[in-house]
Amino acid sequence: MTWQDDYSTRMMKSAALPIAELVRGEGCRVWDDEGNEYLDFLSGIAVNALGHAHPVLVKAVSEQVATLAHISNYFASPPQLALADRLLSLTGGDRIFFCNSGAEAIEAAFKLARRTGRPRVLSLVNSFHGRTMGSLALTGKPALREPFEPLVPGVEHIDSTIEALEAAIGSDVAALFVEPIKGEAGVIDLPEGYLESARRITAEHGVLLILDEIQTGAGRTGSWFAFQSSGVVPDAIVLAKGIGGGFPIGALVTFGAASDLLVAGQHGTTFGGNPLATAASLAVLGEIERADLVENARIRGEQLRAAIVGIGSPLIAEVRGRGLLIGVGLTEPAAPDIVRRAFAAGLIVNAPNDMSIRLAPPLIIGDSEIAEFIDIFTKALEAP
Ligand SMILES: *Cc1c(COP(=O)(O)O)cnc(C)c1O
Question: CB 3.0 to 4.6 Å from 190: which of 99, 194, 335, 355, for a disulfide?
Answer without folding.
Answer: 194
